[in-house]
Amino acid sequence: CPSCGEPTAIRESTRRQGGEDIVTRTLHCSIPSECPATLRGQLFHYTRVLDIDGFGDKILNQLLERGVVRDAAGLYDLTAQRLLELDRMGVTLAEKLVANVHARAEVPLEKFLVALGIETLGKHAAALLAARWTLPELRAQSVEELANIPTLGTLTAEQIVGGLAEQGPLMDRLLAHVTIALPEAPITTGAL
After folding, report:
1. DSSP per residue over 112-149, as a string?
2. Helix crossing, 168-175 with 153-166: angle to 10°?
3. pLDDT value of residue 18
4. What is the reported pLDDT for 184?
5. Mean pLDDT by 10-residue block, N- to C-terminus, for the chain (192 residues)?
6. Residue 174, helix vs strand vs coil
C-alpha cells in the first residue's frame, strides 16, 4: 500500500448492468483499519454523503494524524476546544465544524446506508432497502432475502450483507450519536 506500506489484496465488487453481473477487481490495503489513506477516504465519503461541510483533506489529515478521530463516529465526539489544537484553526471555524456535525445527527436510513461506504450499496440499493426495512430489520436479513429484491441479485446481496456485518461495530458507535429519521408519511389529498 503506498500509504502505509502493508501488503495489498485484490477485492472484487459486482454491479448489475443490462441484466448481467459485472465484476471489477481492485487492489486495496490488506489492513484498512490501520491505513491512513483508507481512513481518510472513509471519513471524506461520510462527510460528503451527509453534507457535513468544512471537513476537507487538510482537516481530516490532521484529525487522523493526531489520533483525534479514527472513524466517522469520532466526528460526533469533536469539541471546539479539541479542534483548536489543529493548525490554522480559529474559534469561529472550530465552533462551526462542531455545529455542522451535530446538524447531521438525524439521518434518513437511505443516506446512512450510503454513508457507510459499503461497496455496491449506493443510492439505488439503499433506497430499495430503506423502503422495506428499518435498520435493525435490515441487519437481520439474509443474502437470500436481499437477493429476492428485483435489480439486486445474489452477488450484490452477498456484498451488502457482508458489508453490513463488517460495518456493524461502526454502525453501533454511530448510533450512539445518530438517530435514524423516520420516513415521512405520504400526504393524502381528498375530502375528509
Report:
1. HHHHTT-TT--HHHHHHHHHH--HHHHHT--HHHHHTS
2. 60
3. 77
4. 56
5. 76 74 77 78 95 94 92 96 94 97 95 93 94 95 94 88 94 96 56 47
6. helix
Please tell me whether the overall predicted TM-score, pTM, comes out greater than 0.90 for this model. Answer: no
pLDDT reported for residue 156: 87
Residue recorded with cell 462551526: 96
179-181 and 106-108 beta bridge pairing = parallel
- Residue 106: strand pairing partners: 179
Q: Dihedral through CA 68, CA 114, CA 184, CA 180, nearest 10?
A: -40
Cell of 40: 481518510
Residues 6+ apart with CB under 8 A from 73: 170, 173, 174, 176, 177
Measuring CA to CA, how many Å separate 178 from each of 93, 168, 171, 189? 22, 14, 9, 33
The cell numbers describing 41, all together, are 477516504
Radius of gyration of the chain (CA): 19
- For residue 38, the model assigns a pLDDT of 82
Is 170:116 a contact under the CB 8 Å cutoff? yes
Degrees, nearest 5: CA angle 184-188-192: 135
